[in-house]
Amino acid sequence: MREKRPLVSVVVPTFNAGPGFERLLAGISEQRGNFDVEVIVVDSGSTDGTVERARRHGATVHSIPKEEFNHGGSRNLGVSLARGEYVALTVQDAVPLDGNWLAAMVRSFEEEERVAGVYGRQVPRAESGILSRVVVNSIATAGSVRREQYAGSPELYRALTPAQRRDLAAFDNVSSGVRRSVWEEIPFEPTNFGEDIRWGRAVVEAGYKVVYEPESAVIHSHDRNFIYDLRRNYINQVVVAELFGLVQVPNIARLLVAILASSLHVFSLLRKEGGGKTAPRDGARFALIALRHAVVSQAGVYLGSKVGPADGRLARSFPRLRRRLDGFLSRGV
What we know:
333 residues; alpha/beta; Spore Coat Polysaccharide Biosynthesis Protein SpsA, Chain A; nine-stranded mixed sheet; 48% helix
């Protein structure tokens, strides 16, 4: 008898996911919906029991050497192994918020054939530090309003401003889904940085629609150090400049303005997260947290516009220095 083909496949890249991986696997098995689900794990050489945990939960595991991993290529491999019409993508340390994670994603696909991809809301972990909570709650994947990202035609998309094109291309593989037939036409780029927004741009430019669906939600956040924040903002700027020609902090004057604006914004979010009424000691602590975050994040953006371009002034004048700085700022993101 022929095995029934699942409607939905879930692809998870892993490397030493740890015991917390059980929460994701259990969350997938608890999803509600009138459809069958399979789980595909693409593992990059775990040695901590990740593979065994995945198999205990019925997942199909495909192992690759650690050095072959990259964010776009490994996800392409996972999707190629999947049998579902819709393929959900997530990360090893995310956990579905509830049993509606996949059903809400599927509903967006089935409502309109033009929908190529769906990405969902991210909710910070309750135990996260206050800065992590306010950062996650302030990004585009924190909103409670559903968005449809559609340009109308390739010509109309290319006629938009860089910022508008960037906004329409938004996509996030922390929690996302792709229509397999569209992925077969437009796979992810085999890159270590920004494979999700690159794919978002490609499908919107091709005339498809991307949907942000807040009812499809996962719990996901990290308490990162300042070096990581510097590197993350550096890479983000490099990617948006490459894809959209968007340079957010082009000079020192704009850097100072960006630091001030970011400090004030984050300070207000910290006060709100702290209950609105804060003691002077808390106010001073929040101001310091906001200022440090603003300096590091905006410095990363500024460096992304100066160090990142391989054909920029720094590369032409000091190619070796540029390569070394880029190597340091691109590491571990």
